[in-house]
Write a structure and sequence with these properties.
The structure holds three protein chains of three kinds. By secondary structure, chain A is mainly α. Helices cover 69% and strands 7% of the residues of chain A. Classes of the chains: A mainly alpha, B alpha/beta, C mainly alpha.
């Protein structure tokens, strides 16, 4: 670490968070190269022969297999699950699914909450008060329950999950954007812009929006972290995606009986991935938040 | 009347701020006798607040007392246990601060502050007795006793400061440390508070250590003055002597900078800025801004010498 | 403004909030694209059966009629009937609500205790390593999915060490007995009234693990909040001023540090209520704790439309109620709010 100097705890947070996410993303993109196993199958193809894998092998298991006279060694870093799938492969493959859902859901949420917040804050008056009251009520409502309600209605599936989760974060975007708009509205430079005859849309987009971006970034990273957790919860409850798609929450749910029976690797590794992904995004979000609004002042 | 009340001996206090260490108070000595009040004057950053906080060991965690003694009533405060110091605070030595809002707990009523004070010092008074006592104190401070049930945010700045003074003096301490007590108040209120302190000083026969950058109010309240610059005392002694005949160039500039009503005078600012204490200038710390700086001033630190009776100055100009 | 008038104003504000929440539930369950009946009943059921269900649920009527009867029904206390047994949904909810309340209260107690102790101690020792650990505690706890935490603790404390039962609210035999003698359905109250301390103990024995799990899950933010608040307060000037008056360190930590942290903590308790309810769904499911959290899950599994709607409506009311209580408590503790 002598090349890069990282001073300040918030910079460390951003660094570690980014590092964690970077590793996850790299592993996800390269998993087909790293691992010979198919995450959805409990068998592996060696030289044309399909070999079935034993379920519930503990981590670091090595199995010797003979195919056409030649010996091959199969290695399972994280062991195998209750159906015989390699846990490592499954866990890595799962991240592409989970991360896509979380990120897409958050972006969808942003695309709805941002314009609503901008308009509401800018227009003001009774429309703003009414919409704010609605948004505050949704915000107060437990996110998971809301997502469960929507998911229960729409059914399982990738798109439905994304929509269900997106609904949860719309109020958070709305509030943050609206809050910024309200405080920026009074600022002298906006008054100056109006006095200079700038059209309202211009003011909205060129003046107000760029000031909103930093908070938006922070909220987005934190929402993605939260979305990962909701996604895991939804799939755990069976409202997410159906097997055999690799998904961390689903794996924990399907493996829970075996986990409780002692096959700890079936549950620990997916859970660990959830934690790492959430921590990655949280660290980045909190790190930037600390930069923008320093909270811990020792002096 | 010549009995020693507080004797600060060679006190050095250092702040560790990340990479830098700053000696906010560097080898400072001063003495306050019973019945005498002292003013400590200087710019911000001169170390006067650090000095005040050190007396009651209220320094933040990143400050360290490197050396020196603080003798109060015969004992070195720096050697006392935490519990012994706690007993002195409020009871033997009282302190008031610059920001009256910051002296009171916003979620406690005025009377609660008094109850807490008395209970912490085991005054063994019943609640009704405390209320009575508190009412008396408030009256002495010029506040009606109906204010006892108010919360701090319901009082004006001046009133809050009076309450703070009342709390500081409630247990009859012999010394009151006042750290910029009127800086946060507007001029009219400031005058009232100074007037109050004057009366209290007389009635209670208490010593006041007044810390301020405003030389104007010092003259009304104190008997002796210490001028601090960059962590050191540059001039010290009898108030009249110093005000009538300021010896140190810094003191002279300070006094010139006071605007006087009725007298047309060019407002003279002191050129330059206070030194960076993480890397103080060698020799006399004032030499970069001193109009009379000589060669020796850049190399050798001047010591405090008694030039006239009870008038000390640390300046090479007077070393003859 | 006095406390009384604040309470009245706040109460009046609750009414629109409840309406909005109920409307949101309505919109989600009926207006959003997607046919609830097909979704819930499944795709293999013949169309006539589905049609009949739609009739039963009144889903064929125009939307505004549905909305009106929905609201009227709710305020009459009628949440419909379950598909299978035709038992009123309200009955189920009343039956299971006490269990969730028990879990919620106990979890909140755990969460706040963990939060206050870890947080304030960490703040007091601000520059020692403990403080840094305390600061990341929150983030780590947040990142562990609560249902996994539940499974983990079940494995460690229940299965491996055998200290606690793995699920349910009472042991099966006592459960049967209790169902015949219960009065309020709150085990704490009932067991004391009936002098059945064996039931009380059994209940506590079952309650411990799920509320510990949910408590740990919630504690993250309390630790972090308490730590930040106490640390900030301890650095404040009026703390130095109090020290200058000779107030004891203990009193400063508790009356000053914690007291000024109480306000945010109480607010946070209310804000965490939403997290509590979400966590309850997962925790109750994992522990088979018979509350309304697991009711949501079971009703979805059972594809019972009215039950799903009913449990979510209850959540809406709970949220509005807790929000009200929190605001009033807040106003009571911090007098500055009322003025």
């Amino acid at each position: 670490m002598r090349l890069i100097k990282i001073k300040g705890h918030e910079n460390w947070m951003i660094f570690i968070g980014s590092l964690v996410l970077f590793v996850i993303v790299i592993l996800t993109l390269l998993y087909s190269i790293i691992s010979p196993y198919d995450p959805t199958k409990s068998s592996v193809n060696i030289k044309g022969e399909t070999i079935f894998i034993k379920p519930l092998l503990p981590p670091l298991s090595k199995i010797e297999v003979e195919v056409n006279g030649s010996k091959h060694e199969l290695f399972f870093l994280f062991g195998t699950d209750q159906v015989g799938r390699d846990v490592f492969t499954r866990v890595i493959a799962g991240s592409s699914f989970v991360l896509s859902v979380a990120i897409l859901a958050t972006l969808l949420s942003l695309s709805i909450g941002l314009p609503l917040g901008l308009l509401s804050g800018y227009v003001g008056r009774i429309y703003d008060r009414a919409l704010s009251l609605v948004m505050d009520s949704i915000y107060a409502f437990p996110g998971l329950i809301l997502a469960i309600a929507v998911a229960a209605l729409l059914g399982i599936g990738l798109v439905n999950m994304i929509v269900a989760i997106a609904v949860v974060y719309i109020p958070s975007y709305f509030r943050i954007v609206r809050g910024q708009v309200l405080s920026l509205k009074e600022q002298p430079f906006i008054e100056a812009a109006i006095a200079l005859g700038m059209p309202k849309t211009n003011i909205l987009f060129k003046q107000i929006m760029p000031n909103v971006f930093p908070s938006l970034f922070v909220i987005t990273t934190l929402n993605i972290a939260d979305a990962i957790i909701i996604e895991a919860a939804l799939s755990f409850l069976g409202l997410g995606i159906s097997p055999p798609t690799p998904d961390w929450g689903l794996d924990i749910s399907q493996g829970k009986r075996y986990f409780l029976a002692g096959a700890w690797w079936v549950g620990i590794f997916p859970a660990m991935m959830i934690s790492l992904a959430v921590l990655g995004f949280s660290l980045i979000g909190e790190g930037f938040d600390e930069k923008l609004n320093p909270k811990i002042r020792t002096k | 009347m010549n009995e020693e009340l507080l004797f600060i001996k060679n006190l050095t206090v250092e702040y560790s701020l990340g990479k830098y260490n700053v000696r906010a108070v560097d080898n400072v000595s001063l003495k306050i006798n019973k019945g005498i009040s002292m003013g400590i004057a200087g710019e911000s950053g001169s170390g006067k607040t650090t000095l005040a906080l050190s007396i009651l060991k209220l320094l933040p965690h990143y400050a360290r007392i490197l050396s020196g003694e603080i003798i109060f009533e015969g004992k070195n405060i720096l050697n006392l246990t935490n519990e012994e110091i706690r007993k002195i605070r409020g009871a033997k030595i009282g302190m008031i601060f610059q920001d009256p809002s910051a002296s009171l707990n916003p979620t406690m009523k005025v009377i609660d502050h008094f109850i807490e004070l008395f209970n912490s010092h085991k005054a063994n008074l019943r609640k009704e007795e405390i209320i009575e006592e508190a009412a008396k104190i408030l009256e002495e401070m010029g506040i009606g006793k109906e204010r006892l049930k108010d919360y701090p945010h319901m009082l004006s700045g001046g009133m809050k400061q009076r309450v703070a003074i009342g709390l500081a003096l409630a247990l009859n301490p012999s010394l009151l440390i006042a750290d910029e007590p009127t800086t946060a108040l507007d001029v009219l209120i400031e005058a009232q508070i100074i007037e109050l302190l004057k009366n209290l000083k007389k009635q209670r026969n208490i010593s006041i250590m007044l810390i301020t950058h405003n030389l104007g109010i010092i003259s009304e309240l104190v008997d002796e003055v210490s001028i601090m610059y960059a962590g050191k005392i540059v001039e010290m002694g009898n108030k009249e002597s110093i005000f009538n005949d300021p010896l140190h160039p810094y003191t002279q500039l300070l006094l010139q900078a006071i605007p006087e009503i009725g007298i047309e005078k060019k407002l003279k600012a002191i050129p330059g800025s206070p030194p960076d204490l993480s890397n103080p200038p060698p020799g006399c710390r004032f030499h970069p801004r001193c109009p009379y700086a000589m060669e020796i001033c850049k190399k050798v630190e001047p010591k405090l010498i008694e030039i006239k009776p009870n008038h000390f100055v640390a300046c090479h100009l007077y070393e003859k | 403004m006095s406390l009384k008038s604040y309470i009245i104003t706040r109460l009046l504000l609750t009414i629109p909030m409840v309406f909005i929440l109920l409307s949101i539930v309505f919109v989600v369950l009926r207006v959003l694209p997607g046919d609830p009946v097909t979704m819930l009943e499944g795709k293999d059921i013949p169309e006539e059966v589905l049609q009949r269900r739609r009739e039963e649920l009144g889903l064929n009527k125009p939307i505004h009629e549905q909305y009106l009867s929905y609201l009227i029904n709710i305020f009459q206390g009628n949440l419909g009937e379950t598909a299978l047994t035709k038992v009123p949904v309200t009955y189920f909810i009343i039956q299971r609500l006490p269990a969730t309340v028990e879990l919620a209260i106990m979890s909140m107690i755990f969460a706040v205790i963990i939060g206050i102790f870890l947080g304030s101690y960490g703040a007091y020792k601000f520059h020692r390593p403990l403080s840094y650990i305390v600061r990341i505690y929150g983030m780590i706890v947040y990142s562990i999915p609560v249902f996994f935490l539940g499974l983990l603790l079940i494995y460690i404390l229940s299965i491996s060490l055998g200290m606690f039962p793995t699920s349910l609210r009472l042991s099966p035999l006592l459960e049967i007995e209790y169902s015949t003698i219960k009065i309020t359905n709150f085990i704490l109250i009932d067991s004391i009234i009936l002098n059945r301390y064996d039931i009380l103990y059994d209940w506590l024995h079952h309650l411990f693990l799920p509320s510990l799990v949910l408590g740990i899950y919630l504690s993250g933010i309390f630790v972090r909040l308490t730590h930040a608040q106490v640390a900030e307060t301890l650095f404040k000037d009026f703390v130095t001023a109090a020290r200058a008056r000779g107030i004891t360190e203990r009193r400063i930590l508790y009356k000053y540090g914690l007291r000024n942290a109480l306000i945010p903590i109480v607010t946070m308790m209310g804000l965490q209520f939403a997290a509590l309810l979400s966590g309850a769904v997962l925790t109750e499911t994992v522990f088979n704790w018979p509350g309304i959290g697991s009711l949501v899950y079971e009703s979805i599994l059972a594809r019972d439309y009215n039950l799903v709607q009913g449990s979510i409506v209850i959540y809406a009311f709970l949220v509005a109620l807790v929000s009200l209580i929190v605001d009033i408590t807040y106003a009571y503790i911090d007098p500055r709010i009322r003025y």
